Amino acid sequence: MGDIHVQGLKRRREEDGGKEREKKKGKRDLKDGRGELGQKEKLKEGAPGKGRSHGKSDSPRQSKAKTARVGVKAVLAEDGKVEEDRKGGCDHDRREEKGGRVKEEDHAQKGEDELQPGRAENGVGWAEGAMPEGPRASPGGEGEETEGGKKHGWAEKAAKRQKEKGQERKGEETKKKKREGGKVRHEKPPRFESLKEEPEVEKTEEGERRGGGKGVKEEEGGEPESGGDGGIKEEREGSGLGKSESVESDEKVKVENGLEDEKDTKTKAKGAKPAKRRKAKEENAREEKSKKASEKLEKEGPAQKRKTTEEGDKKKSKKTKTGENEKEKKKKEEEDKWKWWEEEKTEDKVKWKQLEHKGPYFAPLYEPLPDNVKFYYDGQPMKLSLATEEIATFYAKMLDHEYTTKEIFQNNFFRDWKEEMTEKEQEIIQSLDKCDFKEIHKYFVDKNEARKALPKEEKQKLKEETDKIQEEYGYCILDGHREKIGNFKTEPPGLFRGRGNHPKMGMLKKRIMPEDVIINCSKDSQIPVPPEGHKWKEVRCDNTVTWLASWTENIQNSLKYIMLNPSSKLKGEKDWQKYEVARRLKGVVDKIRSQYRGDWKSREMKTRQRAVALYFIDKLALRAGNEKEEGETADTVGCCSLRVEHIKLYPELDGQEHMVEFDFLGKDSIRYYNKVPVEKPVFKNLKLFMQNKDPGDDLFDRLSTGSLNSYLQDLMPGLSAKVFRTYNASITLQEQLKALTNPEDNVAAKLLAYNRANRAVAVLCNHQRATPKTFEKSMQALQAKVRVAGAVEKKKKLLEKIKEQLEKLNVQVTDKEENKQIALGTSKLNYLDPRISVAWCKKFGVPIEKIYNKTQREKFAWAIDMADEDFEF
DNA sequence: TAGCAGACTTAGTATCGTGCAC
DNA sequence: GTGCACGATACTAAGTCTGCTA
């Protein structure tokens, strides 16, 4: 895939930049039609009431929509008789032109001349008189060199602005009100409330385990004892949750639908054709199996009541210790493996017919600090209430982390912490600077050390306990098959660790209680039992979704789910489907490419922007770039949300024409830095899109991911922007493997070829990682080994085996160096059709274990089973 | 039809556990 | 036997995209 430009990527997670929001807000308001020049200047001075956050009259999408609506009238005068630059661009571009000379004339300039955006828009977006005086330079200028590359002016400015802005929390009030509005019922989870008042707690064994023991007492005062089964019936009877009515009707409908589906399938199967009959047979078998599995789960009894005796545990552990049993177990597991890919696919909407599980495993309760471990305020020891102390420990544990040095983190933490303090504590604790968490920090460091230093037996015991929990809560029954759950534990309380410059970092992530959790399971299954004294928020039966449980987290007010492991049928099937869509794209991609090339000359600005954006998505594997709510997350962008400040145009650079320099923060605030030559029309269009815009303005102001995806959907069913990433990743792997593999090489050399192909994809997709802490050291050690082996060879004492070893080591060195900052895992797991790798292994005699570890082999079991050496993506 | 919520995938980092060198 | 390094796994943040609603 020589057509994809991947050079020049450098890593840098933005630490101090990306805080352009205020500036950007002002600019966008201008695009909304609110911004006349005078207003813009006021905005620059930070005049109140002009930024989008004030009054929230327009969400990002709203602003964009307004501009786009006006934009429909902005039609380019030129019809596109343009001579395209046949030399420009890369291999990829040339391939598009292999049909021969394309007769066109220079289009873009005409377009630009005839459509001065500012004029056509009549002041909307590009205010009159706001034309740049000369060629618009990059907002940041050259910037200074930093570790990750150039530190750009926009980042610096943004950081400064953010600092000036202080730590005001925009939109927080609105959000809070929204939360109070009813969606999140527990503004303060009962746990925290009562902890303040009741430091001494009675803990039941079960409650301790499931995070509910403390709650028994809490509930006493507030809510009536519910009996704690939290089942459907209980919800219907009204549990004081205030939602039971709608819950009931919703649930009813869903449950009934589920039954109808089942009935339908059976009726249809009766007089069906062979395939249908086979399906019916399979279903019967599944039902049988499901019954058995269900019985098995039932035998184990409700989670909360189950108590395994120590004796039993010992027996179990002894048994599993024997190698023979291990082998047997493995064999059995192998036999039990569900080859769902050999079964006929079911209809898409219904995800399961039977779903049974034990609910989430709750994070352990807080254990108070020993009396000798103290918190100090202003140099004086201070006894904190339990809730306050617990939150203090969250901060103390992170003391040696960079997070705690950040002002936003500190401010968010302190504000949330104060909210949870008693009145008296609030009076005393006025400044975070005067808080001394060192002793608490040390306590946890020591505790951690002690845990590591435990004798082998103790460690083994702990592991067995963990395994037991995994066995009990980590699996579910899905359509008669035991499936592994991906994340069966609720997220423990702590401090939010947003990535990059996240405005909410340091905020308190509250404890998830059973009352926050919605359970999803089949109606006739054993409904999970909530911890004693607690009840679920809701129990529903929705077989159109794949999650087992969900709750709303308090930081972003978004949903979190408990879902299945990637090795499961539900995930595997979806994965397979994803690669099939990407393969279908292969068949139409040439057509799509010629279409977007044609659209570069469109009379409509919107169409041109879409065509250029699509070119970037295809050529550079950029993400779609949805609009994000400002102030809620770090300022990151993707293709559609690129701003003018994120690209620089160079008519000539490094001996190449029409160069575009990209520099922006993408997903997870990972810097995307790349210099690419583009085709002349693209270059000219970009110039046009940037005209009369400020650095903070959207580059593609007439484009949204929604409109882009609906356009793609029309071109090919199932096609969306992200499919291009999957397609380009997989096709790159396939092509690189073909180019790099030498059948005569040994396995080590072949693996190096594979890793290089994998690496090409990782670079393309900008999958980066921090250089491992031990990189230098381990590299030196490896090189020392090479030297030793080399010396032996010189003395001709080396045997063939050692030569091989040397070769292997050399390969390792190369591989390691090349892989220093590249994360191969992400592409391997998410973008590369596993059948390509499987076919390659089979073709070149490389054991599949060399490519995929156990987990990966489980995930891609379907591909390993079905792909032969001739598989072509 | 825009906006939003919900459902899902993608992603990097933290932690765990195993195997190897000494 | 011990400590270290590294791969595996766990965790959860941060994206994408679809379908519903006003």
From TrEMBL:
Region entry Disordered, spans: 1-335
Catalysed reaction equations from the record: ATP-independent breakage of single-stranded DNA, followed by passage and rejoining
GO molecular function annotation: DNA binding; DNA topoisomerase type I (single strand cut, ATP-independent) activity
Coiled coil start-end: 788-819
Any single biological process term in GO: DNA topological change
Bias kind Basic and acidic residues: ranges: 12-47, 76-113, 147-219, 245-257, 280-314, 321-335
Domain DNA topoisomerase I eukaryotic-type, residue spans: 495-845
Highest taxon listed in the record's lineage: Eukaryota
UniProt cross-references to CDD domains, sorted A to Z: Topo_IB_C, Topoisomer_IB_N_htopoI_like
GO cellular component: chromosome; mitochondrial nucleoid; nucleus
Enzyme Commission number(s): 5.6.2.1
Annotated InterPro entries: DNA_brk_join_enz (IPR011010), DNA_topo_DNA_db_N_dom1 (IPR013034), DNA_topo_DNA_db_N_dom2 (IPR013030), TopoI (IPR001631), TopoI_C_dom (IPR025834), TopoI_cat_a-hlx-sub_euk (IPR014711), TopoI_cat_a/b-sub_euk (IPR014727), TopoI_cat_euk (IPR013500)
Alphabetically ordered keywords of this record: Coiled coil, DNA-binding, Isomerase, Topoisomerase
Record's compositionally biased regions (Basic residues): 268-279
Active site residues of this protein: 831
Stated role: Releases the supercoiling and torsional tension of DNA introduced during the DNA replication and transcription by transiently cleaving and rejoining one strand of the DNA duplex. Introduces a single-strand break via transesterification at the specific target site 5'-[CT]CCTTp site in duplex DNA. The scissile phosphodiester is attacked by the catalytic tyrosine of the enzyme, resulting in the formation of a DNA-(3'-phosphotyrosyl)-enzyme intermediate and the expulsion of a 5'-OH DNA strand. The free DNA strand then undergoes passage around the unbroken strand thus removing DNA supercoils.
Entry's family note: Belongs to the type IB topoisomerase family.
Annotated protein name in UniProt: DNA topoisomerase I
Natural source organism: Crocodylus porosus
Upper classification of the organism: Eukaryota, Metazoa, Chordata, Craniata, Vertebrata
Gene assigned in the entry: TOP1MT
